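Tutorial, part two.
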Amino acid sequence: MVIRKVGKYDVGRTIGEGTFAKVKYAQNTESGETVAMKVLAKSTILEHKMVDQIKREISIMKIVRHPNIVRLHEVLASQTKIYIILEFITGGELFDEIVHHGRLAEDESRRYFQQLIDAVDYCHSKGVYHRDLKPENLLLDSQGNLKISDFGLSALLQKGVELLHTTCGTPNYVAPEVFSHEGYDGSAADVWSCGVILFILMAGYLPFDEIDLPNLYRKINVAEFSCPPWFSPGANSLLHRILDPNPKTRIQIEGIKIDAWFRKHYVAVRHGEEQEVNLDDVHAVFNDIEDQYVQEQVADKERGPLAMNAFEMITLSQGLNLSALFDRQQDYVKRQTRFVSRKPAKVIASTIEAVAESMGLKVHSRNYKMRLEGILANRTGQFAVVLEVFEVAPSLFMVDVRKAAGGILEYHKFYKNFCSKLGNIIWKPTEDATKPSLLRTTSC
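Running the prediction step on this input gives:
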């Protein structure tokens, strides 16, 4: 079943996929605005007892309205699904910048860090603690400005409750007190994660990184790290005050904002007047009010690869420059990558399945969409990618590859290895100025 319209939104291709949700391109037919549509099945939410978590995430994203936070426009529901309509961010993940450049210049790192601190400070002023700050949850808009996303693990301050007790987040970025099971201050924990992000931006690698979790926790507990020699004294000093294992002596956001290194070229973010937040649509979705349902229009069952229409092709790229679809100069891998083939669709699918199985991955396939699953190299969790074949033109197919589970670095290693084994189906045309730019292919 392929949904093509939800209420006033035309729905395009899938751009992200996780365990519990898919994210799709969509377009508001009334305003023409492009949005990201997060789709969740009600049955999955109920099965995994996630109603409170999802409701909290949606409510928090409606509360936090800041230029450096992904905006939630509205929430809709059909009889079987919940649709979260989000701001569409075109610049990709901050992590892609790190992978591309290795490390960022100090001034550029400082600019991102300033925007991050501004947004986190705003969240804390609203009683919201993110608890999963990491480069993968930091997006960039078309102007290169940072946007915080994914509030799925966030907490909202409850009256009379000073400490949080849920152990959550990504181990490499989590503050030491979160592991103590004795309660922790959400603000101090978020500040620690911001420090880890700043270190990665400037160094190009993690300050705390071990294959096994016990050693990782030991290093985090005593803040066993050292700054590389190219860090300026100001950055070095601030990082050691942020990555202080004692949350009571760790620098707070107020202290960061008056630090001399932080204040260089600092321009405080300006945002409009506070608007009253209305959570009626959130309550309606979760209270199953019948007249709040939107209509879904479903396409016929697909028998071959989906044909990509003009709307979907445009939304693959930034603006109307379709050359970004198949840019031969792109020599790095993003969380979502694609390649082009002139082989028949059945040959593409069968070759992908054979290569995946040869790599020890389990394959689930249906209607030219495949999910490949395996275990991470350090055996700490699952690794999964989703591939889908699209027909771009007669005898020209695009294979879209997306990370569904596991770390970004594991995905990069997988994709490079995977592409090296698919050489016989990946089309790499010779440079020819007479050919339209649309037919230039992504290198693997």
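The domain at 94-263 is CATH 1.10.510.10 (Transferase(Phosphotransferase); domain 1). In part three we will examine how such features are distributed along the chain.
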